[in-house]
Amino acid sequence: MTTRSAIRARSFGSLWHTMCAGVFLLAAIGAGAPAAAPAPAPAGADVLTFHGDFARTGWDANESTLTPDSIRAGRFGKLWTAPVQGEIYAEPLVVSGVAAGGGAPRTVIYTVTERDLVYALDAATGRVVWGPVSVGQPVPRASLPCGNIDPVGITSTPVVDRAASTLYLVGLTTPDGGRTKVYKAAALDLASGRMRPGWPVTIAPPASDGRQFVATAQHQRAALGLAHGVLYVPFGGYFGDCGQYYGWVIGVPAGDPGHQQSFAVPTQRMGAIWAAGGVALDAAGNLYASTGNSESGSAVDFGDAVIRLQTEPTLRFSRATRDYFVPSNFVALNAGDVDLGSAAPLLLPPQPGLVPHLIFIAGKQGVGYLINADDMGGLSKGNGVTGEGVYSRCVFGSCRGGRPEVFSAAAYWDGGSAGRFIVVPGHGSQPAPCRGTGGVAALKLGAAGGAGFDVAWCSGSMSNAGAPAVSSAGASGGLVWVVDSAEGVLYALNAATGAAVYASSGPDLLGSAHQFITPAIAAGRVYVGAGHTVAAYGLK
């Protein structure tokens, strides 16, 4: 899974009740049957997980302040920056109404760094409300078998349980300068930063199909998930694919964190779950993960796959064809280190037509796939580019080999009469009729009246687009927000047309930013973690 560098729980309580209702749905329709991805709900001022919801849509559907017209008419730009100790790879999380630091309720930004530090910042000013709170000492790169982050501490985006007023995160720690390496899962009170009783806990799951979890070989890059009181922690390997690692999902019960669950991708080696967007969850609590390449030869071992795991009563994988998708050219993908799992699965809200429940995925090859979430189909029968799953086509590059093309995570927007769009970041040549290189491409769903997509628009060329996010007031005022990490530029694009509405420049540039970075949009503000700094943008 060699890489190139590194919910909105709009109301977590309402989404929690939706998921609990899904448990009864499971009983009604049979174990392992999928449920539709929950449609994005009004967000208010909360961003509680990567891309705002467990479906990983990246869509804030309740943003009325930031629109193409308001940004053109007003003075939009950087409002404040907050320096932190350590590099930021995770998305900032945003929680409103927190009486942090003993003061009046306010909106708080939570950010984590590779120094194993956690900060709570005042959203209005960027001032530190509490922190930094340390979860341990990070591990020096020199003591790891390979990798490209130094030191390694907290890499992934945490998750907030709003109802429990708790921030969950995972960091790599060492008590002895790197000789011993231990992953710690921590649970912090949102208001004070104090550790919850019984936490932190060492991640030490039981074996899975005879595979043992060895912290030295595993890297925890992918965003965390949370459902039915269980924290889900995905793992892959380090840049360079060294050591005997596997793709893992570890379940850590919030009420009993020592009694962990485990699933390891049944490969001989590798099969990482490493995309920054992490795992997705549907309304019934089923978990979806994309995996990287493995050493399978010609056997399907669920490397370079999208798999569905049941989470109730515990993690398990049926291996039935309804519960996984493998591209027909998986042998070539494995041999060429062309991870399907370089991006996270996106669960689309229910769509019109004969296939209402769809998953979108795109990986290093540059192909975009739509998969039937009700019957994922097992081993596909296309030609490696078209005819895969429900629909597939080349999105970035030639899709016949060469440099890796798609990383991180796509986003979704329903623009009403303008159409329903998937916005995909990539490298290489843009899809026809676009003529640029890199950036983002918007795929309009419903090609030829069916479950397919056409290219609606592309951004201007970009050197290294991160994961886009979308804001709108329902179908109106749509904006696509994306960071070109190589140039330190934050872009706002008209979601219906792709026209550039804003591009940061001069003092508004971000500076150093890591690949895969994604903005968090909440209540008229855009928050970005870049290098050693959190930056806030908005109307001045």
How would you explain this protein's 3D organization?
- It is built from three helices and 34 strands.
- With 540 residues, it is mainly beta.
- The chain has one domain: Quinoprotein alcohol dehydrogenase-like superfamily (Methanol Dehydrogenase, Chain A, 8 Propeller).
- The chain is globular.
Task: Reconstruct the topology from this structure.
Elements: H1 12-29, E1 59-60, H2 68-73, E2 76-83, E3 93-98, E4 106-112, E5 117-122, E6 128-134, E7 159-161, E8 166-173, E9 182-189, E10 201-202, E11 225-227, E12 230-235, E13 248-253, E14 261-264, E15 280-281, E16 287-290, E17 306-309, E18 324-326, H3 330-335, E19 346-347, E20 358-362, E21 367-372, E22 378-379, E23 391-394, E24 411-414, E25 420-429, E26 437-445, E27 453-458, E28 469-473, E29 476-484, E30 489-494, E31 500-503, E32 520-522, E33 525-530, E34 533-539
Parallel strand pairs: 1-28, 18-22
Antiparallel strand pairs: 2-34, 3-4, 4-5, 5-6, 7-8, 8-9, 9-10, 11-12, 12-13, 13-14, 15-16, 16-17, 17-18, 19-20, 20-21, 21-23, 24-25, 25-26, 26-27, 28-29, 29-30, 30-31, 32-33, 33-34
